[in-house]
Every structure is written in C-alpha cells, then in structure tokens.
Specification:
Elements (H helix, E strand, L loop, with lengths): L1 H17 L13 H25 L9 H18 L2 E9 L2 H8 L1 H17 L6 E4 L4 E7 L3 H17 L2 E2 L5 E2 L3 E9 L5 H17 L5 E3 L14
Parallel strand pairs: 6-7
Antiparallel strand pairs: 1-3, 1-6, 2-3, 4-5
Helix pairs in contact: 1-2, 4-5
C-alpha cells in the first residue's frame, strides 16, 4: 500500500510524459528512492522539452521552423476538411532584404528578422500560427478565415510592419516593407501543396507589381481578354 501510494502516481506521470505531455506535474516525494525517482523523471522531462523546442523552433526568431509550420499546416488542413471549414495561408516576405544585409550587415538583418517575426506573432489570434518558412519568408496559418478576413488581416499586418522601426544600436533604426501573398480554401477542396504553391505565387505577384502590397491568389480565367501569365 505504501509503495502504491508513492510510486503509482509517478508511473502515471511518466506514462503521460512518454505520450508527449512533457509539462505533466509530478507528485512531490521528499527524500529516499521516491524523491530520487521524481528528480530523475523531472530531469528527463526537461531534456525532452528542450529537445522538442530545438527541433521545432527557429533559433533566430523564436517562432516555428519550416518543418514545424508545415506540420501545423497539415493538421489544420485535415481539421478544416473534416469539419468543412475555411482556412487561409499567408506568405510574408521582407522586401529587398539582401539590400539590408549588404548595407548594414547580417547582424542588423537578424534584428530585422526578429522584429518582423515578433510583429507578426504579436498580432495573431490564439488559433493562428506563424513560422519561418525560408530566409526572409514567413508562413502564417489562419484557421476559420475566409478570403475577406484573410485579406483584411494581411493588409493590417503590412501596415504594421511598414510603420515599425527596428533599433540597430546607438540611436540608429531601420524600417522595411513586406509583400504578402494569400491563398484560401474551404473544406475538402483544401490541399497542402496547393495552398503553399498558391500563397507563394501570390506573394511573388505582389513583389512583381511593385512590392509593399497584398495579393490574393485566384485561379487564372481562361476566357479573360488578357490572360494572366502562369
């Protein structure tokens, strides 16, 4: 009875940790083998949490890295398809980022990347997710968001970044603009590959049209008088 009262709660906590819940609270056992066991399990849980963070978090910006944001997109597409709900994806790319690095140096470029990532993250809803998709490119996943709401969010984000300044040491500061491409869909029509491709294409269209703007993806109209380029 004594063993069961002290050890069984620890075993149950270990089982939850093994299932991925590394924040499971551990029972408080002071001294003896029970205390040593709890300390060891707590150390293992901390190591697992640190390993998970290292594998899923972009070290520079502190947001999700590319594999993690793509995994999140797969999950959201599956959920939207199951419940026939809308989903939007936005690609945010910093305009002329190479010029920032060439002019001010890569340390300032890192400051800009962290600042843009922080601005995006600070303006997301609880259900939204942002990740660093490429060098200066971010992916934002917007569940339960139709095309109008996604466009409004992207434009708000563009203006926020346009108005932001990022300190670069001393009294200096730098500002940047972003081009944003948006792709949306509903329910079972959603495909991960198509969302990524279309949002990326829309983002490049925004850049081609002069940068510092939002572009919504739409399927080419074959009957239009002036057909769109691929």
């Amino acid at each position: 009875l004594w063993l069961r009262a002290r050890i069984v709660p620890v075993v149950r906590a270990v089982e939850r940790i093994a299932e991925g819940d590394v924040e499971t609270p551990l029972p408080r056992l002071q001294g003896g083998l029970g205390g040593r066991l709890v300390d060891a399990v707590a150390a293992v849980a901390r190591t697992l949490a640190e390993t998970h963070d290292a594998a899923t978090t972009d070290r520079l910006t502190g947001i999700a890295n590319r594999p993690a944001i793509l995994a999140a997109l797969f999950s959201e597409v599956e959920r939207a398809a199951r419940y026939d709900r809308p989903l939007a994806v936005a690609f945010v790319d910093i305009d002329l980022f190479k010029a920032v690095n060439d002019t001010y140096g890569h340390e300032v470029g890192d400051v800009v990347l962290r600042g843009v990532a922080a601005t995006i993250r600070a303006n997301l809803r609880a259900a939204d997710t942002v990740g660093r998709y490429g060098g200066e490119e971010f992916m934002v996943i917007l569940p339960e968001t139709d095309v109008d709401a996604a466009a409004a969010f992207a434009e708000k984000l563009r203006q926020l970044i346009l108005g932001a300044t990022f300190a670069i040491g001393g009294n200096g500061a730098v500002s940047v603009t972003v081009s944003i491409g948006v792709a949306t869909g509903v329910g079972r029509t959603l495909r991960v590959e198509a969302l990524v491709r279309d949002a990326d294409a829309a983002m490049y269209s925004a850049k081609a049209l002069g940068r510092n703007q939002v572009y919504l993806f739409e399927e080419p109209d074959e009957d239009a008088r002036v057909p769109r380029a691929p």
